[in-house]
Fold this sequence. Notes:
The chain is mostly beta strands. 9% of the residues lie in helices and 29% in strands.
Amino acid sequence: MATLRAHGIEAHLPPGFEGRVFVRRPMAGEATRPVAHFATFPLPANVADFGSGAVQLMGPDDIFAVLFEYGPESVGTPLFGRHGAPHRLGPSDFSPVLLRRAIGGQSGTQWFFTTGGRPFTFFAVLGSHRLRHQLVPRLNQLLASLVVTPVDEPVAASPPGLN
């Protein structure tokens, strides 16, 4: 089982998963934060923060997930009021209407939370809404392995795939 560890995010990848943890290079005046991508299919090099460029490549048996950190100004806001990351999801937590961009047959979920004093969203896409009863237990293996630790220093940008 491979382990990813960077920027205060750690994941023990279940069989069949690959992933990366990185900080995207900022555009003019933009602050960027850690992003983790996980997938059961080969991740292309250029994937947007929430999966554009990857979810279009998914087959019905595939899973794509993102752990995206927001800035410290989000801590304490109602949206990030849930304490702790989700560690177990159910098939009823997924819906085709929760996708950022609807792709026929796919299903998604999104959870906002704060852990270790850090605000995050966990966003996941299943390749098939019909197969969610088989796919969600695989995703739960990944969720159970995620660990976020407090980070006291700002993180530097790192290209995807180097962590």
